[in-house]
Amino acid sequence: DFGNRDYDLTYPIASTSGLRQGLTSYGDAHFSLFLRKVFIKALGYSEDALSRPIVGIINTFSGFNPCHANVPQLIEAAKRGVHLDGGLAVEFPTISVHESFSHPTSMFLRNLMSMDTEEMIKAQPLDACIMIGGCDKTVPAQLMGGISANKPVLPLITGPMLPGSHRGQRLGACTDCRNNWAAFRAGDVDVEEIAEINEELAPTIGTCGVMGTASTMACITVALGMMPLKGASAPAVSSARLRLAEETGANAVAVAKAQRKPQDLLSKESFLNAITVLQAIGGSTNAVVHLLAIANRHPTVQGTITLQTIEEIGKRTPLLVDLKPSGDNYMNDFHNAGGMLALLLVLRPLLHLSARTISGETLGEILDAASSKRVYRDSRIIRSLSEPLYPSSSLAVLHGNLAPNGAVIKASASKYRHLLSHTGPAVVFENSADLARRIDDPGLPVTKDSVLVLKGIGPIGNPGMPESGMIPIPRKLAAAGVKDMLRLSDGRMSGTAGGTIILHISPEAALAESPFGIVQTGDMIICDLDSRRLHLDIPDMTLEARISQRRARLEGEDGPIRARQQRRGYRGLYERSVNQAHQGTDFDFLTARGP
Ligand code: FES
Ligand code: MG
């Protein structure tokens, strides 16, 4: 009630309308509403239109983002859904982040995108918001921002691309980008053929067509209860995808009316379900970082979901979905095999069925309703609990003196399993530039039993924690037929990559207290997956002495720590505020409880 009934009668904006939110900008709420209407009317809206629930639609289209190339069509379909159900759809932009066109790395921009998303949802007069995105960092950024903004939000995913074809073989970005590049490096594929392959790896728009980070986050968004079941896998170029957009528009009107907010909807159980799905799909290691960041935006969930939770759920969850990089198939196969509905029905005994969803029903109610009909499942792509692809722990968490705060490995993507329990001498690269300079040096003292160590690619060390953790096999070994080696870093790797690769070592080498920072070439490293142990085999006293020597250098007058404190701009903010991988690499001031 704005104290002037005559004005309200003349301009019957519904008391629920988003246009009434935050009406303090001009001192007097009545005048603020009047001014707001002046400007929205410039767009030609009628009083009737403005009296409806207002559904914002986030437009993340960009000419630099093929994963989001269908966003204009999705907006059109989502608007149709909003309008058919009596709402008013209003689109607005936020930044668009594509994996390949985001220097130094897309992860550097994830937190910026989450701030853009949070602040624009908060700032604008909307009753609910559809967040359209798909590429790897977008969905996490939008979930982080949406949870922090805590207005009703509905993720709408752009969807995966279709696979391509090369000389009778199916291909898909980007597991096959890596396989084929490795074959080219080893001399098995010539320059003409690799150019042909280049044209087929991403043959349509949409997100990467394997179980990389984008697909993983799409499945997780369903498991969190934030999206309809088909929302994870319908191809970007399919009519099903457009119908999902229309359905999301209609859902948004209902969610706006019910004011179903993410902080009320999501619970610890929602996140436990998401982790169960993450393990069962053989999801991306990146999703571990994103899930921790998303959970830590939620005021009551923060701190209850840790690397230990991921490890514990992994131990009782088999890998069921046969998709690259852990298996052999593509996202459209998963879709045609029954998708998330079929998977959740198999996983049912492991799920928390009382978790709420955006529809207003619990997950259990949705699965009950679905299972009353006949649900198709292709058991070659989506296995049963008794015939898994991998018995448990597709993602495992390691600890030890090298990684006191943990490290992550996608054990299911290791095809040379003897390397999962391996002891060998370290060959150390201090940073990415050092790696680029020496990895193919014929004189590099490396054998197939060496452990390749790359430092300086953690959240701070190479801001954004780039996906350089899949250290290439040195050319001389690749040419001799070596396909995999034990590799360690404080960085990430693409969700589409495979190999015996330990990632996210925390604390990262850029921090003065990091034991990982003091590893030297020739030190023996012990990795034992069974005991989840990652150990540097040197005496404790040596380890401590090396840390204190290094600390003096890092913290000195010309050292990198001083330089970070003085750095300007977003990079300065990033380096001073980002937390470690085991916390989600969010900015400390953005987590639910702040720094
Ligand atoms: Fe966008 Fe892979 S590059 S999802
Ligand atoms: Mg990726």
UniProtKB/TrEMBL annotation:
Dihydroxy-acid/6-phosphogluconate dehydratase N-terminal domain residues are 52-365
Q: What is its EC number?
A: 4.2.1.9
Its lineage opens with: Eukaryota, Fungi, Dikarya, Ascomycota, Pezizomycotina
User: What protein name applies here?
Assistant: Dihydroxy acid dehydratase
**So which residues are the signal peptide here?**
none
Recorded hits in SUPFAM superfamilies, A to Z, give: IlvD/EDD N-terminal domain-like, LeuD/IlvD-like
Looking up NCBIfam families in the UniProt record yields: PRK06131.1
Q: What Pfam families does the entry give?
A: ILV_EDD_C, ILVD_EDD_N
Dihydroxy-acid/6-phosphogluconate dehydratase C-terminal domain location is: 381-584
**What is the top-level taxon of the source organism?**
Eukaryota
The entry's family comment says:
Belongs to the IlvD/Edd family.
Please list every transmembrane segment annotated in the UniProt record, as residue ranges.
none
MF terms (GO), sorted A to Z:
dihydroxy-acid dehydratase activity; iron-sulfur cluster binding; metal ion binding
